[in-house]
Amino acid sequence: MTQGATRAGESKAKGEIFGTLIFGPALAQKGYALNKMCFSFNDAANRAEFLRDEAAYCARYGLSSEQSEALLKRDLLKLLALGGNAYYLAKFAGSLGLNMQDIGALQTGMTVDQFKAKLHAAAG
Q1: Do 55 and 68 meet the contact criterion of CB atoms below 8 Å apart?
Q2: Are the C-beta atoms of residues 88 and 97 closer than 8 Å to each other?
């Protein structure tokens, strides 16, 4: 079980949401290289360089093999569990044509339309 996640029936700390990762110091440290790399995607030249040779770009930033594999497979949920910060991963996702609603839908197991409807209902 990852940091911040609980199993069904287990007690959870006040404010925790089942299945939600808490991006605290441990995950921040674990994901430092990944997030630094994703931040580099602010520059269009870096995005183009990444797309030319993704594995080499990951190696340049010192990603773990597990992070590189998840990134190459476009497994955003795994990247979150490996220390990816949603805001930095959004820069990676944007280069794939995805947005924060797409990521939110993945995190919640909903379709994008269901996730959008949930957001609209909550704003209601």
Answers
A1: yes
A2: no
pTM: 0.69
User: Could you give the number of structural domains in the chain?
Assistant: 1
pLDDT in tens, 64-89: 999 999 998 888 889 989 999 988 88
Q: How far apart are CA 11 and CA 18, in angstroms?
A: 10
Residues 10-45 pLDDT 10s: 445 566 665 667 777 888 899 999 999 999 999 999
Q: Are 63 and 40 in contact (CB under 8 A)?
A: no
Tokens of 57: 């770009």
Is there a contact between 95 and 49 (Cβ–Cβ < 8 Å)?
no
Q: State which residues form the domain around 76.
A: 25-97
Chain length of the chain: 124
